[in-house]
Amino acid sequence: VNYKGFRYYHGADNHAPNQRRNLEDFTAAGRLEELQCHYMQANHHFHGDLLPEMIRAINPVAVLVPADQAIYSRSAYMVDYIQGVAEADYENKRLKDTFVSYTSGTVSALVNSGDDWHYETR
Q: Considering only CA atoms, which of 73, 65, 66, 35 is closest in space to residue 53?
């Protein structure tokens, strides 16, 4: 979703095999920058497999993971996301915050444009 330059990405149930195909298609078409977003909702609560390279290409500023405490026993979150994205060092990394709804509660993104937005927890 794009609103006045603000980009939101919803991962839906897009798991690693589909993420790989999406990443390959965007790369082959020379449109990789179109994947970048400001705010991302995690695919399938990060309870399934994910491709760290895809999330690094999406390059969000903030990620919401709508999940309960079981997330902490899932390798998709603890290994693929935390180690492969959140704690990883990669070029032009913009990630500032990751919110797990179990501990953060509701997260709201308040958007005027891509240059004028912020988020808050409640």
A: 35
